[in-house]
Design goal:
This protein has 280 residues and is an alpha+beta fold. Helices cover 16% and strands 42% of the residues. The protein has an 18-stranded mixed β-sheet that branches. Strand 11, helix 3 and strand 12 form a beta-alpha-beta unit. The chain starts with a strand and ends with a strand.
C-alpha cells in the first residue's frame, strides 16, 4: 500500500489515496500503520477518496481503529494533498467528512503548492443531545462540574461534528497530569460516544494555551476541532473574543467564530513529511 505521512502542527496521520489504492479493513490498517515502533507511526489513518457530494471525501480512523467524524488538522492535510497533486485545482472547494460537507480555502505559496488552509468548520453544536452527552437533550453544558479522581473540574461541552469537553485551568499546563485525568474523562458515563478533552490556560487577551487528550489516540500535539471548541467555550465564558490565537504543543492556530454565519473558521499550515510503501 502506498501512503503519505503528513502532519498539521504535529498532529500526524498516515494518508492513503483511494483514487489509486484499496483499503479493505481500514480499522485494522489504522492500528497497524499507527504503531510508532512496528508500523509507520501516527495518530491514525486518513483515507482520501472520491465523493458524489463534494470534491473529495475524507475518512478518519484513530490509532485504536475507531472511526471518528472529523479532524481539523487532518482536513488541512487532505486539502494540501489533493491541491498539490492537482486532484482538485480550485483554491476553494468542498470536502465530505463524517461531520458533513466542509469548505476549504487554500493559500498557495511561491512554489504553487498549498502553504496554508482556511477551513469553514461549520457551526458549533452546544446542546447535550448534539454533543452527545447524558441529560436533557436541549440543555447546554456550560461550566458544569465534573468530579474525576481527586479533583473537581468545570467543563463546557461543544461539538464540532465530534465531541469535546473543554476544561480551563489556573495552573502550569505543562506540568498538568493529562495522562491521569484525560482517559477518565474520555470514558466517563456522561459521554456515551466517549469524548475529546481539552485542557486550557489563558495566556492573554484572545490568546490561549491548549493540551488535548484525543479520543482513541491519547495526547496529541494538536487538535483542530479541539481548538475550535476551545474558542467557542472561551467566548461563552467571557474569557476571549470571537477571534483567538491558540497555542498547541505542535504549533499555533488562528480560530474565528464568525458573527455573520455562526461558523468557525480555522487557519493553519499542513506539512508533507514523506511518502512510501508498506506491506500489509
Amino acid at each position: 500500500m502506498k501512503f503519505t505521512k503528513m502532519h498539521g502542527i504535529g498532529n500526524d496521520y498516515v494518508y492513503v489515496n483511494l483514487f489509486e489504492e484499496t483499503v479493505e479493513n481500514p480499522a485494522e490498517v489504522a492500528i497497524r500503520v499507527s504503531d510508532r515502533h512496528f508500523g509507520i507511526g501516527g495518530d491514525g489513518l486518513i483515507l482520501i477518496g472520491p465523493s458524489d457530494k463534494a470534491a473529495v471525501r475524507m475518512r478518519m480512523f484513530n490509532a485504536d481503529g475507531s472511526e471518528a467524524e472529523m479532524c481539523g488538522n487532518g482536513l488541512r492535510c487532505v486539502s494540501k494533498y489533493v491541491f498539490d497533486r492537482k486532484i482538485v485545482e480550485q483554491t476553494s472547494f468542498p470536502v465530505e467528512t463524517g461531520a458533513g460537507i466542509l469548505t476549504v480555502e487554500i493559500t498557495p505559496g511561491a512554489n504553487g503548492l498549498a502553504a496554508t488552509a482556511r477551513i469553514n468548520m461549520g457551526e458549533p453544536r452546544l446542546t447535550r443531545g448534539e454533543i452527545p452527552m447524558t441529560g436533557p437533550a436541549e440543555e447546554r453544558a456550560v461550566n458544569q462540574k465534573l468530579k474525576i479522581k481527586d479533583r473537581e473540574f468545570e467543563f463546557t461541552a461543544v461539538s464540532m461534528g465530534n465531541p469535546h469537553c473543554v476544561i480551563f485551568l489556573d495552573e502550569n499546563l505543562d506540568a498538568f497530569e493529562i495522562e491521569k485525568y484525560g482517559p477518565e474523562i474520555e470514558h466517563h458515563s456522561l459521554f456515551p460516544k466517549r469524548i475529546n478533552v481539552e485542557f486550557v490556560v489563558q495566556q492573554g487577551e484572545n490568546e490561549l494555551n491548549q493540551r488535548t487528550w484525543e479520543r482513541g489516540s491519547a495526547e496529541t500535539l494538536a487538535c483542530g476541532t479541539g481548538a475550535s471548541a476551545v474558542c467557542v467555550a472561551a467566548n461563552l465564558l467571557g474569557l476571549s473574543g470571537r477571534s483567538t490565537l491558540i497555542h498547541l504543543k505542535g504549533g499555533d492556530l488562528n480560530i474565528e467564530w464568525s458573527e455573520e454565519d455562526n461558523c468557525i473558521y480555522k487557519t493553519g499550515p499542513a506539512t508533507e513529511v514523506f511518502t512510501g510503501e508498506i506491506n500489509l
